[in-house]
Design goal:
Length: 388
């Protein structure tokens, strides 16, 4: 098979590497620096398995900025472009998907288009009508940033939004590249597949918000959060996972997907979806207040990244905390090796960790690190388990 992948982010690159083990894969992106790195067998994103596979596996994988090279003769075109949330319009920005669909239909109308980008409910039906084609299938992605290839090698499930022979063939391609055996396969209608993605992430956001609110109560009432979490986690219906307190949920998916699902609830009775979105803002308010009550002269933000071993800080909860501190007049300095600039959102970036530790009166860390162990007395974190 010849497979074109559009977008060299976590979703696109993990799928490209997975499929390039057995098939010819052309990865298309508009950023030349990403394309150049990939053609040198280097990963433009921080993902241990992707880095290892590019370096050591015999992959049939090339990258290009030329859509003609990517789409011509492709059997499949997998769209993995970002769909950021537009707060003004209360919906995902899907223009990149539609641009790709138009280009593919113009250059190679026989190709089967697979949408991996997260989309609003009913979107696949809408674009099939818009472009007068049946050659579009939605297949949701369930992967974590920093662990994207791992989650494709050992998927919890594979969902394809069509009940057809061609949907089964596509699912088999994903199974073929995976290491896990007996992967659950689910073939649904397109809108149901879209709903599976959005409701899955809304549930995860709800779980993060729940344990954060538990932590807020415990901290204000002098209780040991860890003891409480361990006790309730022994109930197998709850489980001892995805329960580490933080400054809020963030990253590529949870904030925007929760907001999109809330927007899709217009005209439908609801309360919980409102609360999931609101709880994240309330948690950031609370964290900022807990820092300000210590009356620090200089607040040090240790790392902007969402997770340990990640280079992404899109929608990171720490950014919201930082904005609240700045709004209250606090002087904020930032230590973030991933930043190239000397100033970030109006705050000085300090590159020398020793200097950062010395300058900051309080060090705010969403996730604990051995790097700040020597100044533990200065550190404010809610990370109990030293894991994501």
């Amino acid at each position: 098979m010849k497979i074109a992948i559009v977008g060299i982010g976590y979703v696109g690159l993990s799928n490209a590497v997975l499929l390039a083990q057995e098939h010819e894969v052309i990865a298309f992106d508009i950023q030349p620096e990403k394309v150049d790195l990939l053609n040198q067998q280097q990963s433009p994103i921080n993902d241990a398995e992707i880095i290892a596979y590019l370096a050591h596996k015999n992959l049939n994988l090339k990258a290009t900025t030329d859509k003609y090279i990517a789409y011509q003769d492709a059997d499949y075109v997998i769209i993995a472009t970002p769909t950021d949330y537009d707060s003004n319009k209360n919906c995902f920005k899907t223009t990149t998907i539609e641009t790709v669909i138009a280009d593919v239909l113009a250059l190679n109308p026989a190709a089967l288009i697979i949408i991996k980008s997260t989309v609003p409910l009913g979107y696949t039906k809408k674009v099939k009508e818009m472009f007068q084609t049946e050659n579009i299938i939605f297949s949701p992605e369930f992967s974590r940033e920093g662990k994207a290839l791992y989650d494709n090698l050992y998927p919890s499930r594979i969902v394809v939004g069509e009940k057809s022979k061609r949907a089964k063939v596509f699912a088999d391609l994903l199974v073929q590249g995976a290491l896990k055996k007996d992967i659950p396969l689910l073939f649904t209608d397109s809108s149901e597949a879209e709903a599976i993605k959005l409701f899955s992430n809304a549930y995860l956001a709800m779980r993060v918000a729940f344990f954060n609110e538990l932590d807020t109560y415990a901290e204000l009432n002098g209780l040991d959060t860890k003891q409480i979490i361990e006790g309730i986690g022994l109930d197998p219906r709850i489980g001892n996972y995805y329960n580490n307190p933080s400054f809020g949920y963030g990253g590529y998916c949870l904030p925007k997907d929760a907001k999109q699902l809330l927007a899709d609830y217009q005209g439908v009775p609801h309360q919980l979806m409102d609360s999931i979105v609101a709880a994240n803002q309330i948690r950031k308010d609370y964290i900022a207040e807990r820092i300000l009550v210590r009356k620090p002269k200089i607040v040090g933000i240790y790392r902007l990244t969402m997770k340990t071993a990640s280079d992404n800080f899109r929608e990171a909860a720490i950014l919201g905390v930082m904005e609240r501190l700045q709004a209250k007049g606090s002087k904020v300095v930032v230590y973030e090796p991933a930043l190239k600039e000397n100033c970030f959102q109006g705050s000085e970036v300090i590159r020398d960790l020793a200097e950062f530790k010395k300058v900051a009166d309080i060090i705010v860390a969403n996730r604990w690190s051995a790097e700040i162990k020597d100044v533990a007395a200065k550190v404010y974190t809610r990370d109990l388990y030293q894991r994501d």
